[in-house]
């Protein structure tokens, strides 16, 4: 624990316990501590992250689900009834889909991501639910039979402005894929594309739910409104989270 504390790990005691539980030999524990001290994310070393009370597998390089994304999942759940057709776009490990599967009991649930490492990870996390995970750019790999029929599209897409990526903690900057972080010059490049596609993929009355930075809300809501969607914003100060839902008129 002293090595973790000296390396600046804020929750050194908790981390030491988790690493000890993950190691089956003293040599393995020493190796895990070494790599944690060198800056690898705890979740990549453990192979899992806690998200909304569930344990979600996270492979090296794959985005670690953040606690703040619980707000996105709650906001999405609040606007969607049971038996919905749901797509988790930019799914990463599939964390949001995993939670939504339990909360919404959807009639159809699928996930998609561009990054092959994320897709492999999400496929493993969602296999027991029979949830398909497609690989490709945004909506491109999703079966076209669902176009215009989705009740909910959840997308925690990358939204960090390119220049701000360099200011992120090394755990994210060096150990998560840049495609998972970089949202272009104002951070909204991928989200704008997600919103443009949502107009075609949502059923009338369906909702898009996305996460963003608090400083991006105004521009994002304007972009959503320009597309004919009706945005609504949720904030959670404790989680330092902002989620935007946008309804396609019925
Ligand atoms: C911020 S991470 C979020 C991952 C996951 N939704 C979560 O909350 O843990 C963004 C994800 O978007 C994916 N992504 C980025 N650009 C994409 C694109 N054009 N099409 C599909 N996925 C994309 C990345 O590979 C990454 O897994």
What is the count of helical runs?
11
Principal-axes geometry comes out as globular
Estimated radius of gyration: 18 Å
User: What are the bound molecules?
Assistant: S-adenosylmethionine
Secondary-structure-derived class = alpha/beta
Percent helix, as a range, is: 25-40%
Oligomer: single chain
| Helix and strand sequence | HHHHEEHEHEHEEHHHEHEE
Count of individual beta strands? 9
Largest beta sheet: strand ordering: 5-4-3-6-7-9-8
Query: Which regions are unreliable across 5 or more consecutive residues at pLDDT < 50?
Result: none
Instruction: State the major sheet.
Output: 7 strands, mixed
How large a portion of the residues is in β-strands, by DSSP E?
15-25%
Distance between the termini: 56 Å
In round numbers, the mean pLDDT is 96
Write up this protein:
With 250 residues, the chain is of the alpha/beta class. The protein is 39% helix and 21% strand. It has helices spanning 2-6, 12-22, 26-37, 42-46, 69-78, 95-104, 116-126, 162-165, 170-175, 189-201, 217-226; strands at residues 48-51, 54-57, 85-89, 108-113, 133-135, 150-155, 202-211, 230-236, 241-247. A seven-stranded mixed sheet has the order 5-4-3-6-7-9-8, sandwiched between helices. The longest helix has 13 residues, at 189-201. The chain is globular, with a radius of gyration of 18 Å. The termini are far apart. The model has no long low-confidence stretch (mean pLDDT 96).
